[in-house]
Design goal:
Pfam family, one: Brix
Structural class: alpha/beta
GO cellular component, one term: nucleolus
Helix content: 25-40%
CATH class of one domain: Alpha Beta
Order of helices and strands: HEHEHEEEEHHEEEHEEH
Organism: Cardamine amara subsp. amara
Distance between the termini: 127 Å
CATH topology of one domain: Rossmann fold
Radius of gyration: 38 Å
Main location: nucleus
InterPro entries: Brix (IPR007109), Rpf2 (IPR039770)
Length: about 325
């Protein structure tokens, strides 16, 4: 049995509240790890990835011998690091004779491995190998555009999975509104073949277009590389069903005295207070009553005139 520890300090309580499930999740953090052996290409990519995701990534520089994502029992250390750092995505770099310049990209759900995809790095170009105007250099922590070109991202299962993983890796925090002037970078992914993708990082240069929307030019700032798909593992159906469960952000409030019927539709009950009809003055505007009232007034007037004339005769006598 696992021991359930309750927080004893205010700081521990705040940490648990921050890690608790939310209706609207914040940006996913990335865990960057080194394998037993890494090449210069892999080390350079991991370092530049940490730089691109500054503020949203945690990098461990120590080499890990126990992590074998695709092998049974090789995920224990990975899940431990995920729970320790509260990271939902991981990038694991290694280098062997069988799989040179190797990267394993994966996602976690509830600190358990959700899915995995393994790619190899080819034709790698570092940030330092690009020359451009430093004024258009992307700012750290800015939200990027992500562009996927090629039919393979819609037809090939491995490319579909790679598209989902790369989107979660680079998109950052999900927002409703976006200021165009604050978007200064883009990741362009092109499907060259069913098992090869070209990935590059570009800066956005805004120019005048004569309209409200400016004209955008892409300036390659690096890094850029070819990703060759090697192995992949799709999520378990039961775990996928649990992970895809969603909740409404703004649940509808229950409306009182309203019932939805399949035949009659929407029905409602209206509260009417007790009416004391005996004490109420009923207004009747029918024409017949008006005519009777006029005739009664005329009779009263005639009778009053008759009585007045009689009194005058009596007084005259």
């Amino acid at each position: 049995m696992n021991e359930i520890r309750t927080p004893k300090t205010g700081k521990a309580k705040r940490v648990l509240e921050k890690r608790a499930p939310k209706l609207v999740e914040t940006g996913k953090k990335t865990l960057i790890l080194h394998g037993t052996k890494t090449s210069a290409t892999v080390s350079s990519f991991l370092m530049e990835l940490h730089r691109l995701k500054k503020g949203g990534a945690i990098k461990y520089s120590r080499r890990n011998e126990n992590i074998r994502p695709f092998e049974a029992g090789g995920e224990t250390s990975l899940e431990f690091f995920s729970q320790k750092t509260d990271c939902s995505i991981f990038v694991y770099g290694s280098h062997t004779k069988k799989r040179p310049d190797n990267l394993v990209l994966g996602r976690m759900y509830d600190h358990q491995v959700y899915d995995l995809i393994e790619v190899g790095i080819e034709n790698f170009k570092s940030l330092l190998s690009f020359s451009y105007d430093k004024k258009i250099a992307p700012h750290e922590g800015s939200k990027p555009f992500i562009c996927f070109t090629g039919e393979g991202f819609e037809n090939v299962q491995e490319l579909k999975q790679l598209k989902e993983v790369l989107t979660d890796l680079f998109r950052g925090e999900v927002v409703d509104n976006l200021n165009l002037t604050g978007v200064d970078r883009a990741y362009v992914c092109s499907a060259i073949s069913p098992d090869k993708v070209f990935l590059t990082h570009c800066a956005l240069k805004l120019k005048k277009s004569g309209t409200i929307v400016p004209r955008i030019e892409l300036v390659e700032v690096g890094p850029s590389m070819d990703l060759v798909i090697r192995r992949n593992r799709l999520p378990n159906e039961s775990l996928k069903k649990e992970a895809m469960r969603t909740s409404k952000d703004n649940p509808k409030k229950k409306v009182k005295n309203v019932v939805q019927d399949a035949v009659l539709g929407k029905q409602g009950k209206i509260y009417v207070p007790d009416q004391k009809i005996e004490e109420m003055q009923l207004v009747d505007k029918s024409k017949g009553l008006k005519r009777e009232r006029k005739e009664a007034k005329l009779k009263q007037k005639e009778e009053a005139e008759e009585t007045a004339s009689k009194k005058k005769k009596v007084s005259a006598e």
